[in-house]
Amino acid sequence: MRFEARVTIVTGGGSGLGRVLAHRFAAEGAAVVVADVAGERASAVAEEISDAGGRSLAQSTDVTDASDVRAMAETTREAFGPVDTLINNAAKATDADFLGLGEETWDEDVNITLKGPFLCSQTVLSDMVKNGSGVILNISSVNALGYYGNEAYSAAKAGLLNLTRSLAVRYGPSGIRVNAIAPGTLRTPAWEQRTGVDPDVFERVARWYPLGRVGEPEDVVGAALFLASDEAAWITGAVLPVDGGLTAGNMQMMEEMIKGQGNQTS
Questions:
Q1: More confident site: 203 or 132
Q2: What is the spatial distance between Cα 216 and Cα 181, in angstroms, rounded to a whole number?
Q3: Which of 93, 123, 197, 245 is spaced 20 to 30 Å from 203 by Cα?
Q4: Nearest to residue 139, comparing CAs of 43, 223, 82, 201?
């Protein structure tokens, strides 16, 4: 097992991608701290992991609150030891028109999505530096690489990529690796409100993906396990798109551009 005797924190671990990440890291031998602002969700996931024979505990943590984050790190240290792997997964995206986006909403999206990883990374880095090893894995988004809506969330995810590179360079000499994953559309509970109104949204979105479908959380987990493992020991400061080919190019746009060319004469 790749993470035997290692300690992993997963923020936003109570549902969606975070839940699957927590389960898979535990199955690979890690002691997993499931951190989520919704304590009942974190507890449910930690209990699932324990029932499956893994080691886990839940933490009700607001990643935008420095005291909450410090308490999470201290509880982790007391229960399992210092953190070996931090997965910054917690985020928030408000689906609102830019001109109607209030300052409070902007701040909330940016704070959860970018300030949270700053606080969590800062808090665990002291132990990592002391131990001469550690991995921070930031879950960014294709929204950081191009325009796909959700301006506040997208700006924060883009900032997270810069933070990834900055920490990778600054703390590489201390044996710490920092990487990011940029997923495309994933079928998670975050979409429930939209699918309730528009049940066919995933089928429509899928046509923009070269692989012909939206992603599942499991599609991202393999990349996360690899980047956090010793198999990626010489990879740091990298951003890995896991997006079904979305950012590689746009076939539909190309077809529109060449439509009718066969009827042209020189």
A1: 132
A2: 14
A3: 93
A4: 223
Catalytic positions, please? 153, 157
Is there a contact between 162 and 120 (Cβ–Cβ < 8 Å)?
no
**What is the pLDDT, as a whole number, of residue 260?**
59
As a whole number of angstroms, the distance between CA 103 and CA 152 comes to: 10
Asked if residue 60 lies in contact with residue 42, where contact means CB atoms within 8 angstroms, the answer is yes
- For the segment 148-190, what is each residue's pLDDT rounded down to a tens digit? 999 999 999 999 999 999 999 999 999 999 999 999 999 887 7
At the top level of CATH, the class of 7-263 is alpha beta
Are the C-beta atoms of residues 36 and 9 closer than 8 Å to each other? Answer: no
Listing DSSP states for the chain in one string gives: -TTTT-EEEEETTTSHHHHHHHHHHHHTT-EEEEEESSHHHHHHHHHHHHHTT-EEEEEE--TT-HHHHHHHHHHHHHHT-S-SEEEE---------GGG--HHHHHHHHIIIIIHHHHHHHHHHHHHHHHT-EEEEEE--GGGTS--S-HHHHHHHHHHHHHHHHHHHHHGGGTEEEEEEEE--B-SGGGHHHHHH-TTHHHHHHTTSTTSS-B-HHHHHHHHHHHHSGGGTT--S-EEEESTTGGG--HHHHHHHHTTGGG---
Asked if residues 168 and 136 have their Cβ atoms less than 8 Å apart, the reply is no
Task: Indicate the domain borders of the chain.
Answer: 7-263
Beta bridge partners of 11: 35
CB of 13 within 8 A of CB of 89? yes
Beta carbons of 181 and 232 less than 8 angstroms apart: no
* d(C-alpha 154, C-alpha 157), whole Å: 5
